[in-house]
UniProtKB/TrEMBL annotation:
Organism of origin: Acacia crassicarpa
UniProt-recorded Gene Ontology molecular function terms: serine-type endopeptidase inhibitor activity
Residue ranges of every copy of the Serpin domain listed in the record: 1-168
Lineage, opening ranks: Eukaryota, Viridiplantae, Streptophyta, Embryophyta, Tracheophyta
Classification via SUPFAM superfamilies: Serpins (SSF56574)
Pfam families, per database record: Serpin (PF00079)
GO cellular component entries: extracellular space
Name recorded for this polypeptide: Serpin domain-containing protein
Amino acid sequence: MLSLVAAGSKGETLEQLLSFLGSQSKDDLNFVSSHIVSSLRNVEGAENGGPILSFANGAWVEKTLGLKTSFDEVVKNVYRSQIEQVDFVNKAEEVAHEINSWVKNATNGLIREILPSGSIDQETELVLANALYFKGAWNQKFDPAMTKTKSFNLLNGENVQVPFMTSKPDF
């Protein structure tokens, strides 16, 4: 997703993204990203007993903002992603529903919702969405007896106890 953001960036923002992503230019980044997208789309799936991998990227831009044709083409052709100009100002909830329908369709129903009700409003200008679903067998089966209750820190600073899957005993 950051590569997609870089494709639409310029100036200092672009330089920071390229540096963070370890790339020299947008062209280099787009080249690598194109190969990654192609590789992921060619994963042999469940019909052959292999893992299930579904992913989708999309961009929804407020229709009153300008959208360069070159960016539109890169999003569609390099990243094989959806890009739409939408009316967040008057139809924010409808756009949220559209995005949720898109992700449900793109992941064959495996992911039904990425935007809960009220998550976007009339001030929203851009939504970048990425959905990834993976289901595969472990090389080593997990032993449920190895589940340990440990502390987990929430974003609000609260600490809760949750079950963690482990494969090695604590020392």
